Amino acid sequence: MTVQPFISPDLIRQRFSRAMSDMYREEVPLYGALMALVEQTNRDVLERQPHLAEHLRSTGEIERLDMERHGAIRVGTASELATLARLFAVMGMQPVGYYDLTPAGVPVHSTAFRAVHEAALRISPFRVFTSLLRLELIEDPEVREFAESVLARRSIFTEGALRLITQAETTGGLNEAETAEFVLQALETFRWHHSATVTATQYQTLSAQHRLIADVVAFKGPHINHLTPRTLDIDIVQTQMPAHGITPKAVIEGPPRRNCPILLRQTSFKALDEPIAFTDQNQTHGSHSARFGEIEQRGAALTPKGRALYDRLLNAAREELGDFPNEANAARYNALMTQHFAEFPDSLDGMREQGLAYFRYFATEKGLAAAGLGETSLQDLLRGGYVKAEPLVYEDFLPVSAAGIFQSNLGGAAQAHYGEHSNRQAFEQALGRSTIDELELYAETQQRSVEQCAEALRINLT
Ligand code: OOG
Ligand code: NI
What we know:
This protein is an alpha+beta fold. It is built from 20 helices and 13 strands. It folds into 3 domains: 9-301 and 395-431, 2,3-Dihydroxybiphenyl 1,2-Dioxygenase, domain 1 (Roll), CATH 3.10.180; 302-345, no CATH class; 358-391 and 433-462, no CATH class. It has helices at residues 9-27, 29-48, 50-58, 61-65, 78-90, 118-123, 141-153, 159-171, 176-189, 200-209, 211-217, 234-240, 304-321, 330-341, 348-353, 365-369, 378-383, 399-410, 424-431, 438-457; strands at residues 69-75, 94-100, 108-114, 127-133, 226-229, 264-269, 273-276, 286-289, 293-298, 359-363, 374-376, 387-391, 459-461. Bound molecules: 2-oxoadipic acid (OOG) and nickel (II) ion (NI).
C-alpha cells in the first residue's frame, strides 16, 4: 500500500478560500459585481502607478492580491467556537487578536482566524473574523433561556467535517482525497439557509432584543455574512459603487487617505433583505438581512507606539464630531479625520525613524555584491543602500471599524448600551486556547527579515 502524502495546511486554506468565494458568488451575485469592480480598479491603479506595481512585485504581494479576501461569521456557543478553532487549524489558521465590540453596542466579542507566518500568508492570506454572541448580555431571562435552548439543539458541523478534523489531529494531516472531502464538508458550515429554525414570532422576539441575536440564533448554521476583496484604492471603489448599482455606507472606516497607507480602510454595502421561511410557515414568508459586501485597502502594520498614535487621533476626531459618522455628517467627519491625522508622519522614512510601523528588510543587489562588510548597523546599511525596507502589511482588523461595519449592515436599530465590557478570559475559555498577540507576530516577522539580511550579507549587526 502506498502512503499518500499530506497536503500542506496552507494549500488546504487556499483551496477552501477559493471554494468559499465560488459559493458566495453564486449565493450573492452582488459580491461578484464588487469583485469585478475591485479587479478593474486594481488593474487601473497598477497601470497608473508603476512604482506601486514594482513595490508589490518585490514584496511578493502582487501574486496574493487577486486571491486576497476575508470573511466573517458569528457563532452562538463556546463549543461551536472551540470546534471552529479546530476546523481552522486544519487549514493552518490560528486565532489572532481579541476584539471587544460591546462598547459600540454590538453584543459580541471576536477574534480573527488567519495564518501567522509571512511565508504562509503569501500562499493564502485568507482570514475569518469570527464573533461569539455574548448571551449573558441578553437582559430578558426568558429570551436568554430560549436562545440557549435553540442553540443547544443545533449542530453546525457535518459528521464528515468532524471526522476529518479528528483525523487530521490524530494523524497529523490530510491527504489529497481527504482534503477534497474536507473542503466540501467544511463549506457546509458556512452555507446560507433559506429556512429559519424558529417560528415567525420567536424570530421577532429574538430580533427585538438585537437583530444580531436573531441572525445567530434563528438559523441552522453561521452563514458567511460577507467576503471582502482587497483593493489598491478604496476611494475610487467607494465613488464608483453607485454607478454599479451598489450603495456604499456613508464613510470609509479607518485612517484617512494618505500617501503611505496604514492599517486598514474599509467600506461596505448594506445587507440584502432576503426571503426566508419560518418553521410555522411552509412557504417563504419572512425576510432577514445579514449578508453584505465589503472592500478593504491594507497598509502598514503599526507598532504599539504607532497604534497608540492612531487611536489617539481617531478618538480625537470622533470626539470632535460628537456622534457616530453617518450620511449627514460624513463630509465633516472626513475633514476632521484629515485634520487630526496631519500629525501622523506620512512617509515611510518618517514612520520608520519614529518607530511607528513594522518593516521587512531586504538585501539589495548592491548589498549582495558587497557581502562581508563586517560589523555595521541596520541604519548604516539602509543609508548605504545595501538594504531596503518595505512596510509589513497589516493582516488584522480594527475594533472601531468592525463596529462601524456591523452597525451599517444591521441598521440603525441595532444600537444598544451594555454595562459589561471586555472579557478576553471568557472568550479564550470558550475558544479552548489563548489568542495570539498580533503585535508579536509583526515583531517576529521583522526580526526574521533582519536576521536573513545579516546572513545574506554575511555581516554582524550591531
Ligand atoms: C463582522 C464585521 C467586522 C470587519 O471587516 O471589520 C468585519 C460581522 O459583521 O460579522 O468584518
Ligand atoms: Ni469584514
